[in-house]
Amino acid sequence: MVHDSVVRIGLVLPDVLGTYGDSGNATVLLKRLEWRGIRGEVVQLGVGDPVPNSLDIYLLGGGEDRAQTLAVSHLTEHPGMQQAAANGAVVMAVCAGLQILGEDFTGSDGVTHGGLGLLDVRTTPGSSTRAVGELLTLPDKELFADPMTGFENHQGHTQLGASARPLSRVVYGTGNGEGHDGAYQGHVLGTYMHGPVLARNPAFADLMLTWAVGSPLAPIDVPAISQLRNERRRAVQQMANRRKRLLR
Ligand code: GLN
């Protein structure tokens, strides 16, 4: 999967899909490769640039409704990412990015746009209140064990079709709006979490890197990281307990 021992990461349209610092996901992947002595390279693919089908990982971020339609036209005209995904490349998309990977999405103006068809999901405007705030979820057991956290800010709600699996189950927050957050199908992943999501969820970053490299990765042994992870586990547990008490 990885060419010339370099993991090549495409940052897809950060000029229109990069509203909430999601480009930081590329930095996290690079750093986690570097800590393991693996070379990585980030390729910025802006509006107007061709999209190569030879990269190992493609990252898409969030954006507003108009940016989404612009992104779909560009990626339809330059289908390199879709071709790479069909060959097993890893694609990870956040919020607006998740929505455009689906079959279709309807913006708050009520207009439905065709998506890129990489995920069997559809998005429609959710309830009148926009989902804004912290999101806490438990990932699909097939993927990894650590709970996930992120920040969400979206109007759209996403329904999954039969071919997509939910990425995680919501403990706190809105996510897709049906009790789950995000979706995955093969190596294509989507979530509503900003953060950037890979900075807040290193296990998610390592899942993507394992898929891209095609073999298990060496653990990263930084004491401060395990300390932070333990603190976070405790915080997540406290949040879950608080929620249980509130629902009682
Ligand atoms: N415009 C989309 C929505 O509101 C996506 C927003 C985002 O990417 N944060 O649902």
UniProtKB/TrEMBL annotation:
CobB/CobQ-like glutamine amidotransferase domain residues are 8-201
Quick check: keyword Manganese in the entry?
A: no
Q: From the UniProt record, list the reaction(s) this protein catalyses.
A: beta-D-GlcNAc-(1->4)-Mur2Ac(oyl-L-Ala-gamma-D-Glu-L-Lys-D-Ala-D-Ala)-di-trans,octa-cis-undecaprenyl diphosphate + L-glutamine + ATP + H2O = beta-D-GlcNAc-(1->4)-Mur2Ac(oyl-L-Ala-D-isoglutaminyl-L-Lys-D-Ala-D-Ala)-di-trans,octa-cis-undecaprenyl diphosphate + L-glutamate + ADP + phosphate + H(+); L-glutamine + H2O = L-glutamate + NH4(+)
Catalytic residues (positions): C95, H194
Q: Record's InterPro entries?
A: Class_I_gatase-like (IPR029062), CobQ_GATase1 (IPR033949), GATase_3 (IPR011698), Lipid_II_synth_GatD (IPR043702)
Binding positions (substrate): R130
Q: In which pathway does it act?
A: Cell wall biogenesis; peptidoglycan biosynthesis
Keywords (A to Z) from UniProt: Cell shape, Cell wall biogenesis/degradation, Glutamine amidotransferase, Hydrolase, Ligase, Peptidoglycan synthesis, Transferase
Q: Per the UniProt record, which EC number(s) apply here?
A: 6.3.5.13, 3.5.1.2
Q: Does the keyword Ribosomal protein apply?
A: no
Self-association state and partner proteins as the record states: Forms a heterodimer with MurT.
Q: What does this protein do?
A: The lipid II isoglutaminyl synthase complex catalyzes the formation of alpha-D-isoglutamine in the cell wall lipid II stem peptide. The GatD subunit catalyzes the hydrolysis of glutamine to glutamate and ammonia. The resulting ammonia molecule is channeled to the active site of MurT.
Q: Which PANTHER family match?
A: DETHIOBIOTIN SYNTHETASE (PTHR21343), LIPID II ISOGLUTAMINYL SYNTHASE (GLUTAMINE-HYDROLYZING) SUBUNIT GATD (PTHR21343:SF9)
Identify this protein by name: Lipid II isoglutaminyl synthase (glutamine-hydrolyzing) subunit GatD
Q: Which organism is it from?
A: Kutzneria albida DSM 43870
